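Lab notebook, bench 4. Continuing the backlog of folding jobs that were queued last week. Each job is logged with the same field layout so the records can be merged later without manual cleanup. Today's entry covers MerR family transcriptional regulator, a 252-residue chain. Filled in by technician R.K.

JOB TYPE: sequence-to-structure
TARGET: MerR family transcriptional regulator
LENGTH: 252
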Amino acid sequence: MEWTIHELATRAGVTSRTLRHYDRIGLLAPSRVGANGYRYYGSAAAARLQRILLLRRLGLGLAAIAGVLAEEVDEFDGLRAHIEELEGERDRIERQIRAAHRTLEALRAGAEPSMDAVLSGFNDDYEHEVVERWGEHAFRVSNDWWHAKSIEQQRAWQRDADDLVASWIAVWKAGVAPTAERAQSMAARHVRWLSAIPGTPTAEGDRERSILMVKGLGDMYVGDPRFSAMYQDAEGAGFVRDALHAYARTRM
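JOB STATUS: finished
OUTPUT FIELD FOLLOWS
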């Protein structure tokens, strides 16, 4: 099956001028040019145009698109990449829809929109870190779990998290040693809290990765000012780290 330049442009929602431009810059050549000079596009060219238009919608410039397409080994790799991008775009749109629903819910409940903004994501701001440390699956599952909650459920979860931090601070200020039973009970509570978050290694019963996660979180509480501030200062965060390390080492 072939389409003229006008037919393909109409089907794709672009102009014939756009297709001629793509041809001039070597991005999309017609499948053949007739004796009359007309451009004709076959199914392979139409599929390539679909990829180009998708990448354009994702914000890539034409030079970048050319680079992406040049690196694709075969049509199967290209189609798989296309599917992944579509799925990513679908997930992004679904998150936006859920965020809009949460804002509407907050407004109906008389809540300040700014509060909804604070509670709008579980780990969106840390997506790169979560994916790098624990994989795409961990981020997607935990993020979907969070976004499925209502405003009140999110607030309740935040209150529980705040209570966990406050309890850690109280134990630290009491002068308890990180390896003492009271501190280790707090570490066990912390791990149970993690296990309630779908997608985490602790929730999925992966012992080896759970140990790494608990130790890694302890290190992050000290090394990352965003987290050490929650425990008042580096000393408080260090107490939590030492207790979690001891728990992971001896009780997991």
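OBSERVATION: The chain has a mean pLDDT of 82.
SIGNED: R.K.
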